[in-house]
Amino acid sequence: MPREIRFNAFDMNTVGHIQHGMWRHPRDQSHRHTELAYWTALAKTLERGLFDGLFLADVLGVYDVLGGGPEAAIRNAVQIPLADPLMLIPAMAAVTEHLGFGVTSATTYEPPFIFARRMSTLDALTGGRMGWNIVTGYLDSAARAVGLTTQIPHDQRYDWADDYLDTVYRLWEGSWAEDALVRDREAGIFTDPTKVRRVQGVGQYAINAMHLCAPTPQRTPVLYQAGTSTRGRQFASTHAECVFVNGTSKKQVAELVADLRAHAKHPLKIFVGATIVTGRTDAEAAEKLADYRSYASAEGALAHFSASTGMDFAKFDMDEPIQHQTTQGNQSNVEAITTRSASTWTKRKLIDSFVLGSRQQPIVGGPQKVCDALQAWVDEADVDGFNLSRTVTPECVEDIVEHIVPELQARGAYKTAYRSGTLRDKLFGHPRLPDTHRGAAARFGDTP
Predict the structure, then answer these.
(1) Is 80 exceeded by the pLDDT of residue 330?
(2) What is the phi/psi pair of residue 224, to 5°?
(3) Half-sphere exposure of 260 (CA within 13 A, CB side)
(4) Looking at residue 328, what is its pLDDT?
(5) How far is residue 93's CA from residue 364's CA, in Å, rounded to a whole number?
(6) Distance between alpha carbon 222 and the CA centroid of its chain, in Å?
């Protein structure tokens, strides 16, 4: 029996997300990202295609490393303009029943008490469909935007994130007993005050507070994490239930996946980033790729990659080997083209790899060819599914729902209906964190 493949749509509340330049295509609708109707239509399409979730990325700064300024990013709409992703969730939840929502929020820039309430509110409003993509931030511009003089060192951000997670676990899991809500109209008791307690923060998060929200369907949202640097993998195997990885080869990803699974004490679902260009036939898909490719922006892709790595590629000669540098940027991206790469990368090689305005090489073909490729990733790299980034929107998602989902279903490799329950129920078969998860130690009745 084939392994069931899972899909998340990978998107952002912006014009240019991963594949830079696609906004120029005459059929692209990403300029409508500030219209609720754009997002509610997308949510309905994803639910029709039985996607597990919509995974929404976010950053809090501008990409201003290439050439020492933000001009290239601004000119090419490289994640600017950019609006808050969390505001979209209630509207999309109102027009769907099962679709999950994974939203990105950085531990470095927002107090845990405030963030915990926001996520509990969303988990309640969505009926338990929330996930949190845990990031620590990597842009100097984001650090400056919140009043820091420079970015906090990479590994220290993860140390702080450990404390942050242990603090929000205490709020979500340990502040309210499961039966705290009484709702006794005759006695005049809505909540039993003996079953709501103050909790203490961990490390630098010196809170002393009761969580303001009653227990939600999941308590703790499903935990996503995308760091695959050495320190990021340690953090992911400790906290994440779903891990988002990128890689240039199945062998490279398989090694990452094996390491993550070996160190985690709880079950993991692992999603690899992918881009699909498809149609009714291989020839139609190839024509579509050529069309899309004519709009791709190499400058936009370079602006994005410079900021994510913290390396100004404007300073590199075209054929100069790219050596590993310790930066405060995204170390997994730095390692991907240096220490974890079997070949030497140059600026020319980077630009040549930007097929659709990013380093992510698209899977191109009709339904049979694409599904063969997806199943090969699952079989050879031991991934559970894919975070599918958009190209020309919304037609790229509509193409997957129309062409790829039915072919996978015919192969027995994709669900034909949603399971009932919360997002965690759908992914793991239970609504709450497993007992083996680090956050379970914070449950009510244990040490606050």
Answers:
(1) no
(2) -105, 150
(3) 31
(4) 59
(5) 31
(6) 12
Q: Which single residue is written with the structure tokens 């919304």?
A: 394
Burial readout 230-240 (b: 16 or more C-beta within 10 A, e: otherwise): ebbbbbbbbbb
Place of tokens 């990978």: 10
10 Å Cβ neighbour count for 226? 23
Report if residue 313 sits inside a domain: yes
- C-alpha dihedral, 170 to 171 to 177 to 180, nearest 10°: 170
Is 446 domain-assigned? no
Q: How many domains does the chain have?
A: 1
Structural domain for 222, as ranges = 6-182+190-439
**What pLDDT score does 331 carry?**
60
Cα angle vertex 229, ends 227, 231, to 5°?
A: 90
| CATH number of residue 46's parent domain | 3.20.20.30
Confidence (pLDDT) at 335: 65
Whole-number pLDDT of residue 334: 59
DSSP string for residues in 65-99: -GGGSSHHHHHTTBS-SB--SGGGHHHHHHT-SS-
Angle made by CA atoms 250, 251, 255, in degrees to the nearest 5? 115
Write the pLDDT tens digit of every residue in 263-307.
999 999 999 999 999 999 999 999 999 999 999 999 999 999 888
pLDDT at 329 over 60: no
CB atoms within 10 A of CB 330: 25
Kindly state whether residue 444 falls inside one of the protein's structural domains. Answer: no
The tokens describing 249, both together, are 């080869």
